[in-house]
Amino acid sequence: MMFKKKVTTVVFISILSLTLASSAFAANQALTVSAAKGVVDSNGYITGQNMNGKFNLSTQANGEVYAHVMEYCDNAASKIVASDTRTYAGNTIMNVYMKSKCNYEIFINNIGSNAVAKAYLNNWYN
């Protein structure tokens, strides 16, 4: 009888631990948004993990390209947490602290680059 009670307790604690661990962390997620010249676009949301994420803006041709990351948290006004403007071909990478329970979206505006511009957002930084 005592053995059965110990096994039941161990099983219960194991299930509870797995449930709490899986609900505490969001999975690694990523977004990519592309925009041809004259296009403004966004593409879905990802959830933060209480750690730095990575925001990247890339274009292969000269011309103005703008992108920003919006943060949406419960009971708080949405706000821009990162932004970048490129006027020359190249790549910019920056850290963005991404809170858990908040959603993040990237917007891109290819104002004048003849190449397709791309913005990337990961909720982890590697």
Provide an overview of this structure.
- By secondary structure, the protein is of the alpha+beta class.
- 18% of the residues lie in helices and 48% in strands.
- It has one helix and nine strands, in the order αβββββββββ.
- It has one helix at 2-24; strands spanning 30-35, 40-42, 46-47, 51-59, 65-73, 79-86, 90-98, 102-110, 117-122.
- Strands 2, 3, 5, 6 and 8 form a five-stranded antiparallel sheet that branches.
- A hairpin with a 5-residue loop joins strand 5 (65-73) and strand 6 (79-86).
- The longest helix is centred in the N-terminal third of the chain and has 23 residues, at 2-24.
- The radius of gyration is 21 Å and the shape is elongated.
- The termini are far apart.
Notable features of this structure?
126 residues; alpha+beta; 4-stranded antiparallel beta sheet; 9 strands; elongated
In short:
By secondary structure, this protein is α+β, with helices and mostly antiparallel strands.
List the helices and strands and how they pair.
Elements: H1 2-24, E1 30-35, E2 40-42, E3 46-47, E4 51-59, E5 65-73, E6 79-86, E7 90-98, E8 102-110, E9 117-122
Antiparallel strand pairs: 1-9, 2-8, 3-8, 4-7, 4-9, 5-6, 5-8
The main sheet comes to: 5 strands, antiparallel
Main structural class: alpha+beta
**Span between N and C termini?**
50 Å
**Overall strand count:** 9
Order of helices and strands: HEEEEEEEEE
Helix share bin: 10-25%
Q: Provide the gyration radius in Å.
A: 21 Å
Number of helices: 1
Shape: elongated
* Residue windows where pLDDT falls under 50 for at least 5 positions: 14-23
Query: Which percent band covers the strand fraction?
Result: over 45%
Q: If you average the pLDDT, what whole number results?
A: 86
